[in-house]
């Protein structure tokens, strides 16, 4: 393994360790999987000599020992190598220490690892040996406190290009790696290699095919598109202003990376979709899921608040979105999550995201929330500056209802298409898009019922009008039930309390 094989980020790490070789005794090379840590350590081994210890060496040695003496096996492995060599380079140390470290809850000697590692560190320093440790970032405390450390940072476009040239066996001159990096800035070498191998066998390797492959793999999104109805934003009727805003402030910055880079465009950080049930808020989420694919992350009713898994799943989604930025986190029915007033952790998390304080990548994550009742959202969360785009989903007007009804009728079987559309439009005043869909579906069921009962000269329009009347009656009962429920169990989140409001406002900074 020659240094010329290293990407720029990997070469920087290699050069640092070569320069630091005479400055200390214990060194730590760390980086996430796929950053080339093993490759760098192999190059160092060729340069410096000594012994390269792999996780395989540990596994083979541990096989002959008691399962409750894994740290003893690691100690023996390292000490034996150090006694025989001036330089010892250990790769994937975290894989060996994980089962016996502080987080190894099921290992009876959990936490005992510090003792043998302290002995190793002392031996290295007193005998003036050299120990290089490679891991994903975790080291036992005695080693961590005595080492010089260098991390292999995330790849830049030039790293993508260097690695892909190697994986392709020739210069990938038809790929704009600046564009690929803007689309997916957190790829590792494993993912780049898979892309190159796939494209070599299936199609020409150029920019569009490369990005197309990345889109097809949904490298980060937590949404299975096969389980999401395939809809398009253009299918929503009567909300042209909302669609135009979403296109301008979300779709364009995410889908047109060259233009976004040229003009310095970023998706809005905070977007709130407000409207009654059935007006298309969730439909917008479905459309964006298909539109953005790997750039779309969903938090919905399957994330059950109040459970021990809730914050873990939320954290995973937010971290994946940040790693895949620019991206969209879509929080459906956010008012339902917050109405209990107990999700303080998520509340503070969102404040940090919307303020863009944590890192540069956070500034490229759009948090889009839907809500029926804005009154259940914390006031500080929806104040100006955090919600940059406020979109209201309103009930369809006569023109929109006409378009929606015609669209549903056109998809119906031939006997059910000929209906008096103006009469239906007049009868469905105040209906949502979901109400209109239900009206047509129920009308078809009533028509079928009439035919089964042998009725002659059935009026299709009459069946639809009956269905509309039934839907309106159900809506009235629903509204009445909600009113009674609110009277019986009135709730007001604690952030509205004058005694607790200041507690939640501590996250804000004075403008």
TrEMBL record:
Statement: the UniProt record of this protein carries the keyword ATP-binding: yes
Pfam families xref list: AAA
Region of interest called Disordered, as start-end residue ranges on this chain: 484-511
Domain AAA+ ATPase: 267-394
InterPro entries: 26S_Proteasome_ATPase, AAA+_ATPase, ATPase_AAA_core, P-loop_NTPase
Gene Ontology MF annotations: ATP binding; ATP hydrolysis activity
Entry keyword set: ATP-binding, Nucleotide-binding
Domain of life (superkingdom): Bacteria
Family: Belongs to the AAA ATPase family.
Protein name: AAA family ATPase
Organism the protein comes from: Roseiconus nitratireducens
